[in-house]
Design a protein that fits this description.
The chain is an alpha/beta fold. It has one domain: Rossmann fold (3-Layer(aba) Sandwich), CATH 3.40.50.300. It contains 7 helices and 5 strands, in the order E-H-E-H-H-E-H-H-E-H-E-H. A 5-stranded parallel sheet has the order 2-3-1-4-5, sandwiched between helices. Strand 4, helix 6 and strand 5 form a beta-alpha-beta unit. Helix 2 packs across helix 3 and helix 3 runs antiparallel to helix 4. The two termini are about 15 Å apart. The relative contact order is 0.23. It comes from Shinella fusca. This is Putative ATPase. InterPro entries: NadR/Ttd14_AAA_dom, P-loop_NTPase.
Length: about 180
């Protein structure tokens, strides 16, 4: 396990990327969400490994990217903040009906025991070219993650619905 690897997870559209940018601005090392990077690449090349076309292919790529991200940050000193990561990707793959061995995969690639979850926040939720699902789908994903993380031995910490600087202060204080 790497106590230095900090996961930001939770509801889609809940402010994870904004928080990650604030942490980066403060000098912390950050890793962008695998899903966003995959969607950007697939849209650019006309690919089909997109969550609204082929969720299983998308999630398999996200698992591989999350593993590569972890490996790339293995020797990095200090905290590394991940916008989503392996658990979110593997949970999505499992939800797509694939036999993934989520518990075994998660056990072999641990993050800090505290995972920081963005709660559903409809006031800031917005769909875009890379996030085409509606708020109801985001809630379903959130509910799945709220169940999965404790089952895998993580302690979920709900991030407050406050301005990004205060949210970052809260997160850092929890560490």
């Amino acid at each position: 396990m790497s106590d230095r690897f900090i996961l930001l997870s939770g509801c889609s559209g809940g402010g994870k990327s904004t928080l990650l940018e604030e942490l980066r601005r403060r000098g912390h090392t950050t890793v962008e969400e695998p899903g966003r990077r995959i969607v950007e690449g697939e849209l650019a090349k006309g690919g089909t490994a997109l969550p609204w076309l082929d969720l299983a292919a998308f999630a398999r790529r996200a698992v591989a990217m999350a593993l590569a991200d972890r490996e790339a940050m293995r020797g990095h000193p200090g905290y590394v903040f991940f916008d989503r990561g392996l658990i979110d990707a593997a949970a999505a793959l499992e939800a797509a009906g694939a036999a993934v061995g989520l518990a075994e995969l998660a056990a072999g690639h641990r993050y800090n025991s505290r995972v920081f979850l963005t709660p559903p926040w409809p006031e800031i939720y917005a769909a875009d070219a890379g996030r085409r699902h509606d708020f109801a789908a985001a809630l379903g994903e959130y509910e799945r993650l709220v169940r999965v993380y404790p089952m895998l031995g993580y302690e979920p910490v709900l991030l407050p619905k406050v301005p990004v600087a205060a949210r970052a202060d809260f997160l850092i204080a929890q560490l």
